[in-house]
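Async update (no meeting this week)

Hi team, since we skipped the sync, here's where things stand on the single-chain job. The sequence we agreed to prioritize is pasted below, unchanged from the tracker. I ran it this morning and attached the output directly underneath so nobody has to dig for it. Comments welcome in thread, and please keep replies under the output.
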Amino acid sequence: MKILATIYKEFLLLIRDPGGMALIFIMPLALVIVMALVQDAPFRDYQEIKLEVIFVDQDRDSLSAKVLKAFKASPNVSLIVKNDTTEAKKLVQAGNFKAAIVLPKNASADLRRKTKQLISRVFANFGFSAETDSATLPVIDIKIFFDPTIKSNYRQALSGAVEKIAANVQTEWVLDELQQQLSEGREEAPQKITFDITKIMRIDERYASENKYQGLMLNSVQHNVPAWTMFAMFFILYPLAGNFIKEREEGSMLRLRLISGSQWPVISGKFGFYFMICLLQFVLMIAVGIYIMPLLGLTKLVLGSNPLGILLTASSVAMAATGYGVLIAVYFRTPQQALSFGSVSVVILSAIGGVWVPVYVMPEILQTVSRFSPMSWGLESFNDLFLRQASIRAILPNVLRLMGFAMAALATSVIIHKSRTVV
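Output:
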């Protein structure tokens, strides 16, 4: 009965506090919407490579035709043809374009000659009569000018694409030259075989998930909704600590301690009430992700296919957040101390836990430190469930960590509460 009475008392205190209600319900909803909108462009920027690139074609031959054809088929790169290298370099330097590809004069002719020279030397090395070109040919220098502000992954992707096109052309021309030299001297030349190099080997990109959620990637909504939901849960310490310390200062806690019996029901009642509030926060934030985000032009939150795992993770995060709030409330003697330390510590835990930015973009030292943040455990579990379609067994280690953190905080709170003399 003490637990139920405590829960009812906390309910009355909360509904009589409009500021507290706004802090734990309205502010988190506004925060998750704003952060999802603000971070939508950066998330797209990390995941999508869409570039307008200048192409200076000084070759005007088959090699340049291959380059144009290959990039024309690419959805991520749009080539803008220019004739002057100096103009292209200035446009890139000014930031109007992210890169410029310059194909030098006679690139196709030089590549054909190099190919013929290579095959002739190979034949001569094996004792076949072949006319060998001993001239030292210059390196075919394909230049790529980059904007200094371009991200390294963009630069690597563009350079790799150009290298791949050039390599395919070289391979195709080597095979053509090989057939041509083998057919020389024959009365009846065999029919030339054409090769499509791209069909010999290809990269088949797929996501590891093989169900209806295949292809779902981490985006602004999938990251921010669970991340800021946990942030809101941990800020439950504001009303919890405020009410707890107020009762202690007004003498209510002293009267409760004078009643015979354990103090565990009082702590448990507070824990149980705010645990349910955390779960209510979770439901509201998830509803925003599913129904409100699409109305703002963002993607709809996808929950995956493991509702039991989601409930288990949400419950364990709510336990950890409430346990931490109870510990802060019991340990500190004044509201100023509790709320100042609590707010700063929650911000730090969220920052190193991947709430502000995903852990994988952090420096290595912070990635190591993040393993000790309960928010990191919760966020990793939500990512496993939403994006990787993980089973309960996969998220169980992080769930147990969160529950262990909650139980340790709650047990410490009871010990402190029993040992401290209320004045």
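Quick observations from my side:
DSSP finds 15 helices and four strands in the chain.
The longest helix spans residues 152-183.
Reply here if anything looks off.
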